[in-house]
From TrEMBL:
Gene3D superfamilies: Glucose-6-phosphate isomerase like protein, domain 1. Residues 2-50 form the Bifunctional glucose-6-phosphate/mannose-6-phosphate isomerase C-terminal domain. Keywords: Isomerase. This is Bifunctional glucose-6-phosphate/mannose-6-phosphate isomerase C-terminal domain-containing protein. It comes from marine sediment metagenome. One of its GO terms (biological process) is carbohydrate metabolic process. One of its GO terms (molecular function) is glucose-6-phosphate isomerase activity. SUPFAM superfamilies: SIS domain. Belongs to the PGI/PMI family. The keyword Cell cycle does not apply.
Length: 56
């Protein structure tokens, strides 16, 4: 399996973590497109939002 190592940029650990999350988002988005999958459905996130709304 081919892979590329990506070093997170940022001055703080939080900045590096957010850079890593953003890179993961980009990778999963384009991987979905390359595999003919619509990357826009967010049923898990929608469920979480609905649950959080009920907690108020």
């Amino acid at each position: 399996i081919e892979y590329a190592e990506v070093l997170a940029e940022g001055k703080s650990a939080l900045a590096q973590a957010m850079t890593s999350v953003l890179m993961g988002d980009y990778v999963s988005y384009y991987a979905a497109l390359l595999n003919g999958v619509d990357p826009t459905p967010t049923t898990d996130i929608d469920s979480l939002k609905a649950w959080l709304a009920r907690q108020k």
